[in-house]
Amino acid sequence: MSDKIWNVYLSGEIHTDWREQIIAGCEAKGLKVRFSSAVTDHDASDMVGVNILGSEEDNFWRDRKASGINSIRTSTHIREADLVVVRFGPKYKQWNAAFDAGFAVASGVPIITLHDAEHDHPLKEVDEAAKATCRHPEQVVEILAYLMS
What we know:
The chain has one domain (6-147): 3-Layer(aba) Sandwich (Rossmann fold), CATH 3.40.50. It is built from six helices and five strands. The protein has helices at 18-28, 42-53, 59-80, 95-106, 124-129, 137-147; strands spanning 6-12, 33-37, 83-88, 111-115, 132-134. Strands 2-1-3-4-5 form a five-stranded parallel beta sheet, with helices on both faces. The relative contact order is 0.20.
């Protein structure tokens, strides 16, 4: 096993425990991984701009303030990552996750996508750029274990 500590950025859907499953699976296998992610508290993420920079009556500008601050965190973590895992969940369209995938690929950081088969067609271009497409968090853990062996 390598001594390298892998930096893995977990991008995408925030409504299920897929992140926790991957982290717990890596811990159970004793893998040397440092995880980072966007802020997964939806309200905290959406309101960071107005909480720091002041209120906005127009939602467009409220969102713009938040996205500017959040993008600093996201782009920094993606550039520092050895690998980005991008989860597309079934309930909401994760436009930000698609952007993260493209940003990672453009930055030379490999991606793994994680989504159900029902999204194969709409995500075909994103999956084409991915080094692997997983259906379950356990598969991501197994890939990480293989990479670190």
